[in-house]
Amino acid sequence: MKKLFVLFAMILSVFSGTTGTVFADESGSNVFADSFKVGYFETGFMPMYSAKGSNEGGIFEELLQEIGKLTNDDFEIVYYPATRLYNFFRDGKIDIDVVACPEWFPGEDNFSVYTKPVISFSEAVFVRKGKSLMVETVNDLRGETVGIVKGYIYPGWSENDIYKPEFATKEETLFRKFKEGRYDVLICAVPVAKYYASKYGLELEVAKVMYTVDLGMRIHVNKGTAIDRINGALDQLKKDGKVDFIVQKYLGSSAENIN
After folding, report:
1. Band of the pLDDT at 17, cuts 50, 70, 90?
2. Which domain holds residue 37?
3. Are residues 203 and 157 part of one domain?
4. What is the CATH number of the domain that holds 200?
5. 171-179 and 190-200 helices cross at what angle (nearest 10)?
């Protein structure tokens, strides 16, 4: 029965001048599905999404726009510091937390529903290209000055006295300091490194991948009934090649800077 309503919505889209699949509910309505508050860090998290007041865009920012075109959902972006954003999502004051996976939030399945993955996400130790440094464990960083974003925790790799941490308030500052030569080693996410390597013309090498997860979004259970609709839109966008296009837009041109 549901397939008939989706087909009906597709026929309507032809006469209304829109293209693609529109996911309608069982009443046949495709006027408006639901509204969601989507939480972003105030400082942004490029290339995933931009900071408050910025027009840089981002992978998840564009992805939500494309999902909205298919589902007619409305996504309102709200900006908060990291701790407040987390608390607001837990309390149901924010409906969607982008850049999320179950591994990052163990024990929170009682209020979190996860979408299908969008992007593979690795955290790694990076060194300046040409620097002779073999890294297998954190002990190999002994005596090094290591750039790291303050407040980020990398189990087994942060909060130790093996290396000297040089803290940055956000990712962009982390790479600005690297460009200035403040350190030759840093720890961050691979997609983030690719983005800023391209932006600042930096040459980096991956010394050690610490772990890899598949990231999507998490939806508060208060809006959990939307998961099938949003996953259906993600499937359609993947099939149409739009997910790959968006990811490559922010990461593809910088691949040559990361070895």
Report:
1. very low
2. 2-120+215-257
3. yes
4. 3.40.190.10
5. 50
**26 and 145 share a domain?**
no
Give the start-end residues of each E strand in 23-176: 35-41, 74-80, 96-100, 112-114, 119-128, 145-149, 164-168
Whether pTM > 0.85 for this model: the answer is: no
Q: Which two tokens stand for residue 151?
A: 């407040």
- Nearest CA-CA partner of 56 in 171, 187, 219: 171
What's residue 59's pLDDT?
A: 95
Mean pLDDT along residues 71-95: 95
Residue 140 has pLDDT above 80, yes or no: yes
Distance of CA 152 to the CA centre of its chain: 15
Total domain count for the chain? 2
89/193 same-domain check = no
The confidence score (pLDDT) of residue 2 equals: 37
Calculate ∠ Cα 180-186-144, nearest 5°: 90
